[in-house]
Backbone:
């Protein structure tokens, strides 16, 4: 990537979006950047799966965290996800800043820029939540909900940064298009998070109904008619696992495409 800049282009985009070397140097290859980002995602995903497993946290915390039907189970799920992602972005930004020619780059700008790229932790949790049942419990269902909330928060933070950094430039069509793009991305994330919460609430209602039905004599067969007669819908009675997973994966793929396209749009304007 050449370090020669067209002055008109440089003046037409926000300073926070201009991430390029101040001295002639060779930019890192896109493949290397992608590999570094993939490694960060994998580490976050593995830690997210470990922290998100309620029985596992319950055991290693000496029964202090991860108790059933306790609110702290949500706190320890979404805070690490949000924190790991944010700290990981900051560390990547520090590495960029320490590269010769990039000393003038602000760490906060790089960290916020790469928040636009969605994480794969939610994809993994979407898969394991309904695929793995342990002793009649879905160990990752609370982490699934909490991580959806964390991802929504990260996307909103990125969208706000894009708009604030673009203040004074929004009268230009290409800058306005990127700002709208980011908020569409955040909106899709919100839709996905709401859908996940609804699925979680249906599952909670289903589990409570199972506990209540367990009071009946052994041999009582719990059919869908029983759930419907007691005010539960067919969805609450038998979760549509395959359809549910497909919908969430589809929304995540759209969000991922928008996120990477958004970063690519920044790169085409002079970012790397």
Residues:
């Amino acid at each position: 990537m050449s370090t020669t800049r067209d002055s008109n282009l440089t003046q037409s985009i926000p300073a926070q979006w201009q991430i390029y070397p101040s001295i002639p140097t060779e930019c890192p290859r896109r493949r290397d950047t992608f590999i570094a980002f993939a490694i960060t995602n994998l580490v976050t995903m593995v830690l997210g799966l470990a922290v998100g497993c309620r029985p596992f946290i319950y055991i290693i915390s000496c029964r202090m965290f991860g108790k059933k039907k306790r609110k702290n189970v949500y706190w320890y799920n979404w805070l690490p996800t949000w924190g790991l992602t944010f700290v990981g972005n900051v560390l990547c930004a520090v590495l960029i800043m320490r590269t010769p020619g990039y000393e003038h780059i602000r760490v906060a700008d790089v960290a916020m820029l790469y928040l636009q790229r969605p994480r794969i932790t939610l994809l993994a949790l979407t898969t394991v939540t309904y695929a793995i049942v342990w002793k009649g419990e879905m160990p990752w269902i609370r982490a699934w909900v909490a991580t959806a909330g964390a991802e929504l928060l990260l996307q909103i933070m990125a969208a706000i940064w894009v708009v604030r950094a673009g203040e004074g430039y929004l009268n230009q069509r290409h800058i306005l298009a990127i700002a709208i793009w980011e908020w569409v991305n955040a909106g899709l994330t919100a839709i996905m998070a709401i859908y996940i919460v609804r699925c979680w609430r249906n599952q909670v209602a289903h589990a409570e109904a199972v506990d209540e039905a367990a009071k009946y004599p052994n041999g009582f067969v719990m059919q869908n008619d029983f759930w419907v007669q007691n005010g539960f819908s067919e969805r609450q009675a038998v979760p549509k696992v395959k359809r549910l997973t497909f919908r969430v994966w589809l929304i995540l793929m759209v969000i991922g495409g928008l996120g990477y396209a958004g970063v690519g749009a920044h790169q085409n304007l002079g970012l790397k």
